[in-house]
Amino acid sequence: MSHCHHCCQQHEHHSHAEHEHEHGSVRQTVIRIVVATILLILAYVVERNVSLQPWALLLIYLPAYWVAGENTLKEAFHSITHGEALDEHFLMTVATLGAIAIGFLPKTDNQLHEAVFVMLFFQVGELFESIATGNSHRSIRHLLAIRPDSAHVLRDGVEETVKAQEVRQGDTVLIRPGERVPIDGVVTQGSSSLDTAALTGESLPKSVNLGDEITSGCVNLTGPLQIRATRVAQESTASRIILLVSEAAERKSSSETFISRFARIYTPIVVALAFVIALTPLATGGDFVTWIYRALMFLVVSCPCALVLSIPLTFFGGIGAASRKGILIKGSNYLEKLTQVRTVVFDKTGTLTKGKFEVTAVHPQLIDEQELLHLAAHVERYSNHPIASSLRDAYPNENDLCTVTHVQEIAGQGIVANVNLRSIAVGNERLMEAVGARWRSCHKTGTVVHVAIDGEYAGHIVISDCVKPDSAEAIRALRKAGVQQIVMLTGDQEAVAQEVAQETGVDIFHANLLPADKVVKIEQLLQNGNGMTAMVGDGINDAPVLARADLGIAMGGLGSDAAIEAADVVLMDDSPSKIATAMRIAKRTQRIAKQNAYGSIGTKIIILILAAAGYASMGMAVFADVGVMILAVLNAARTLRL
What we know:
By secondary structure, the chain is an alpha+beta fold. It has 4 domains: 3-138 and 253-319 and 586-641, no CATH class; 148-235, Distorted Sandwich (Calcium-transporting ATPase, cytoplasmic transduction domain A); 326-354 and 468-585, Rossmann fold; 355-465, Calcium-transporting ATPase, cytoplasmic domain N, CATH 3.40.1110.10. It contains 22 helices and 22 strands. Helix 1 (3-49) packs parallel to helix 6 and helix 3 runs parallel beside helix 7. The model is unreliable at 1-18, 132-143 and 247-256 (pLDDT under 50).
């Protein structure tokens, strides 16, 4: 029973520890680079001004080499001792040790500074990679806000405030207006409206009365409620959502970097060829010193500095270009995934729609449109209900000569008040029936607010969540970008979902979904194997499905902290059209990265052949290493102008 709660607490603590560790790692890398650079400069000055034996020079350069390469050396040793595939750390280690060994061969120049340079470049590349990938770990600590710590329990007629985890099944829990529901239960007394957006994504408040079931995480908006707890806190809806996020995040595999994938093939080949070159005299009878020198030079040339530094810089530049357009991409692996997206799944409320109620139609009967809005806004002037706010926004001029008295709010129905001595009722069909007004239905989708004057029906006002101006254009742009299927998932009603789907042009929609249902739908799409599947959402209820999708995209302006943290890409201005922009930047960035990869590898192959044949000098080796790296970095800088 307590497994869910324990897992959530454990995951929260683990996520925070990971964040602190990653931040500390970047800081340590910066310090390591600065210290190693200073030690290298000092060692180089001593070498130029004092004549020393090779072993003495080694002692002078060793501190700089160790500071710059400690982590790389340890990683290489770990790879060897654990029988893992040869990686870039191993290649860097062999190449730099080769540069050091060259200086101890007869009639050769000292290359200790080259060894330290190589390690320094590698550390800079590692630093940029760390910055580019950023904090891509999932954190659910903000989700805990939907699960209150305490609850008001009535025991033997006495109210007690206890921890939510101490509420027992069958306990009577009191929930006041403005409070979040701490436990799943059934209403035993009172009626009210609930804000369920955090759980279902439903844009409209939900009315609850005697006998209705309510779930934890909702906010009680109007009247006090008493509920009978049907589940303990550890098994509540809010706790299950938190667990869904942690499980989805754990199942989501992390993308390997291009460098690691390349090095698994490149490194073993280079090392094997170097051994073949070194052992050539066994077959030809040549000079061992000459061929060992060529083999070590071969290893120096083979250092993939250009790749190690330029590839992360390319992705870092692409991420920077995206950020300037209001798109936050949390890592280079997510930039790569953006190029592979073939299915995009949208949440509705706050993603394709504004997530804010607006008056979309006014249908008067006794009076004109302005007068109908005028009366409704005055009656609702003191209510904190979202519908009331929409009416006031539609008719903001409330400071006229109207006198509003005897305001009576009827939970689950609406408000009745006297405006200039006339009785005005503003609410739903039940309120109209209560005041004897013969209301009529409306063909438009949305919340219909009816108005009656002295018991006579005066018309109705339609309030709905409007589609964002760029939603339809965003979907058209995604199709041009190569997206093959666009789906909408929502907790809203079928009729509302269908209208939004038709207006925006999505291919498929599913309505009346809870967070767990959305995860199931995403799982089904993932199993289809039609490229990468991206999920776009903004609310706490979207956090589990954002974490489960191949790529999670969150709205940063109106989105919840939980959704933003669970996502891999954040759109800071809530414009869905930015998704296609992000995909365009990602594709151009990947194109530049491939140019660097092919150019660097091609140049190195040519000079490696020359080195093996004995035609390459150390100057050519340095160009193949440092020169190619500089050219690749300059090419990578083009991403800053994307």
